[in-house]
Amino acid sequence: MTLLDVGNLWVKFPTRQGMFEAVRGVSFSLKKERLGIVGESGSGKSMTGRAILRLIRKPGIVEADRIALEGTDLMRLTEIQMRQVRGEQISMVMQDPKFSLNPVMTIGAQIMEAYLLHAKASRSEARAKAVEMLEAVSIRDPERVMRAYPHEMSGGMGQRIMIAMMLIPNPQILIADEPTSALDVSVQRQVLDIMDRLVTDRGMGLIFISHDLNLVAEFCDRVLIMYAGRIVEVCDADKLHAAQHPYTRGLLNSLPRLDQPRARLEVLQRDAAWAEAPSVSGRV
Ligand SMILES: Nc1ncnc2c1ncn2[C@@H]1O[C@H](COP(=O)(O)OP(=O)(O)OP(=O)(O)O)[C@@H](O)[C@H]1O
Ligand SMILES: [Mg+2]
Q: Nearest ligand to the C-alpha of residue 38?
């Protein structure tokens, strides 16, 4: 069953040099699956995720034929209705989690507040839930973290705290923008396991944005490859290493490999035609 159906999404920014098109006619759909979005820096991955939740800052412009959440077109909702969608149905873990936390509130107070917005519970129940959520994302000393402020957290802790907060409302869809890139390998594994369980056990849909092709090939079900604001290829994650598009091949070939050390990394050869070819919608 399709959870989310995005049709012909554009994100544009007016600049002094004219309109800059960060996302150019992207179409895809999301089921109860782990959908990866990969592509080099600046290819439009974050803007695609943010546009779905109407989180593009002014003067940015979002246009789309549809952004349908189980049949409801989010493009037609008011800002107040959109706030409800963001709070309850679709959550996003931002690429820079620290900017999303309130700097003058303790971590504990923020998680409890997020929980109390969604559940009828006493403060002590909310407190117990907050500690439980921190434990669920492998925060070792939750009691200390509850009393701490965001600036006292490392980048990786901030990221896990954001994931804990985003999971409190039990969303149907989680958009995770580079959720594990600041984490060391063992914590990364734990966070991936948490997200994996949400997809498998609760039937959540996950959009997993990453520049790490190996990680996405291993973790996701399907992958969208973006280049210059377009989707240039859609493939099953386990077939990513056999991807056809020359840009995808270039990305794969420029990955360093431990088993096949190379004296020099290949430089990605670009072709202007990739950016102009119509966006593929793949098997959507
Ligand atoms: N406010 C803005 N004004 C103009 N251009 C912008 C603005 N915000 C983003 N962009 C541009 O939009 C393009 C897409 O940005 P986006 O953040 O989606 O890239 P990304 O694929 O997430 O990259 P990264 O891997 O570095 O996170 C970039 O070229 C960026 O410079
Ligand atoms: Mg990004």
A: 1
Asked whether the whole model's pTM tops 0.85, one would answer yes
Q: How far apart are CA 24 and CA 12, in angstroms?
A: 8
The mean per-residue pLDDT over the stretch 228-244 comes to 91
Q: How many CA atoms lie within 13 A of 80 on its CB side?
A: 0
pLDDT tens digits, residue range 80-129?
999 999 878 999 988 776 667 888 999 999 999 988 887 889 999 999 99
Residue 253: is it exposed, middle or buried by C-beta count within 10 angstroms (0-12/13-18/19+)? middle
CA of 227 to the centre of ligand 1 (A): 12
Q: Kind of pairing, strands 230-236 and 222-227?
A: antiparallel
Residues lining ligand 1, Cβ inside 6 A: 13, 15, 20, 22, 39, 41-47, 60, 95, 211
**Is 5's pLDDT higher than 50?**
yes
The closest ligand to the CA of 60 turns out to be: 1
pLDDT, tens digit, for every residue of 60-81? 999 999 999 999 999 999 999 9
**Rounded to 10 degrees, what is the CA torsion of 188, 194, 198, 204?**
-30
pLDDT one-digit tens code per residue, 139-154: 889 999 999 999 998 8
Domains of the chain: 1-89+174-284 (3.40.50.300), 96-170 (no CATH)
Q: Which of 43, 94, 208, 210 has the most ligand 1 atoms within 8 A of CB, as the residue to mutate?
A: 43
Which residues, at least 6 apart from 251, have a Cβ–Cβ distance to it below 8 Å?
Answer: 38, 39, 40, 213, 225, 268
pLDDT cut 70: percent of the chain above it: 90
The best mutation among 20, 52, 230 to test binding of ligand 1, ranked by most ligand atoms within 8 Å of the C-beta, falls on 20
Ligand nearest to the CA of 230: 1
